[in-house]
Amino acid sequence: MLVISIQSQVVHGHVGNSAAAYAMQAEGVNVAAVATTLLSNHPRYPSLRGRVLETELVADLLRGVEERGLVEEAAVLVTGYLGSPGNAAVIADFVERARTRNGKLVYLCDPVIGDDGRVYVADGILDVLRHRLLRTANLTTPNQFELELLSGAAIADAESLSAACAVLAGAGTDVVATGCTLADTAAGQVETILCTDGRLSRFATPRLPIRPYGTGDLLAGLIAAHLAKGEAMELAVRRAVDTVFAVLVRTQDAGSAEMRLVPLPTAERKP
Fold this sequence. Notes:
Blueprint: E1 2-10, H1 17-26, E2 30-39, E3 50-52, H2 55-67, H3 70-73, E4 76-79, H4 85-101, E5 106-109, E6 114-115, E7 118-119, H5 125-136, E8 139-140, H6 144-151, H7 158-168, E9 174-180, E10 189-196, E11 199-206, H8 215-228, H9 233-254
Parallel strand pairs: 1-2, 1-4, 4-5, 5-8, 8-9
Antiparallel strand pairs: 2-3, 6-7, 9-10, 10-11
Organism: Bradyrhizobium yuanmingense
GO molecular function, one term: pyridoxal kinase activity
Protein name: pyridoxal kinase
């Protein structure tokens, strides 16, 4: 079982592959992790070192992945934070080649764009996501803001969320919408909602008074790991949500600004 995971990497903290790779390995899945950035930490801190990796370097690493036969071996391919429009383009090229070379490969696109009404990626990345990567994806995991931006529709209730997902799912893409608060969401709860074939499966957890970075990256990585192990989509999402919530509870109890991932909590194993 192998997942190819293409996203950011940091020295301190848990975002991008620095959240997802360990979690996937802890679930018993091998990971080929390709970095799009190499940073000292996420931008919440008062200083930030490192940089977005050069497009030529990212393209070279992806060619190495192909030369080692990892595309044919992989069960799931994940993309997250892309870093630059140039990186987005060469990653889209790689995804298209990979899907051609391995017809069984499941592609999970985490469309990292922004949150809380703010776009924080470079100009040009949104176009690659919308016109290339999402059209190729089997599954995408936007937060509510990203889903609204990509679909062009405001989300207030289950009906409008279903309509927004349908815009992204025109080519058969399943959608996992994260961080959702809808009109009928219970007070004090936040929801992760799977939309597949027009049907919604809703997973609610208590809303905790903390917002560590990387929870979406962790969730996407865990879903990928469970899918790589052959689990059905709904069960994969349920187990990923349970694990992320357990990590957040531990993080809150520790009073930590960074997620407390180690050791990874064991998700509920009942179907």
